[in-house]
Amino acid sequence: MIDTDIEEKLPACFGELETVFPKGEDGLRNTPKTCLACLHKTGCLRSAMEGDEGLKVQEEFVDRAYASGMLSFVERWSQKKALQHRLKTLNIEHKAQKK
After folding, report:
1. Cα 55-58-62 angle, rounded to 5 deg
2. What range defines the domain where residue 29 resides?
């Protein structure tokens, strides 16, 4: 049985994109070995990728796919527009929570 106290205590780095999914020397993002051993790795990475920095990383993925010929111009435009809309919505939600 899993100890619920362990699950409730999240590490200080939880959801920090540059900690859990940093850009390597080759310009690609990788999960560090220390994170692979963590019980919270999946939720942590999901949390990091759902934030505004994570949406910017997703834009990097779209640009890289376009540059390699995996996406057409219209597909790239459509995906980037959707990401920008999500980023705008996220920023509006953050502003509303601060009030």
Report:
1. 140
2. 1-50
Tens digits of pLDDT across the chain (99 residues): 445 555 568 999 999 999 999 999 998 899 999 999 999 999 999 999 998 899 999 999 999 999 999 999 999 999 999 999 999 998 888 778 876
What is the rounded CA–CA span in Å between residue 80 and residue 62? 7
CB 63 within 8 A of CB 87: no
Partnered with residue 29 across adjacent β-strands are 23
Q: How many structural domains comprise the chain?
A: 2
pTM above 0.85, yes or no: no
Residues 59 and 27 in one domain: no
Alpha carbon distances (Å) from 54 to 17, 20, 44, 69? 7, 11, 12, 23
Measured between alpha carbons, how far is 25 from 76 in angstroms, rounded to an integer? 26
Q: 58-90 as b/e, with b when 16 or more CB fall inside 10 Å? A: bbeebeeebeeeebeeeebeebbeebeeebeee
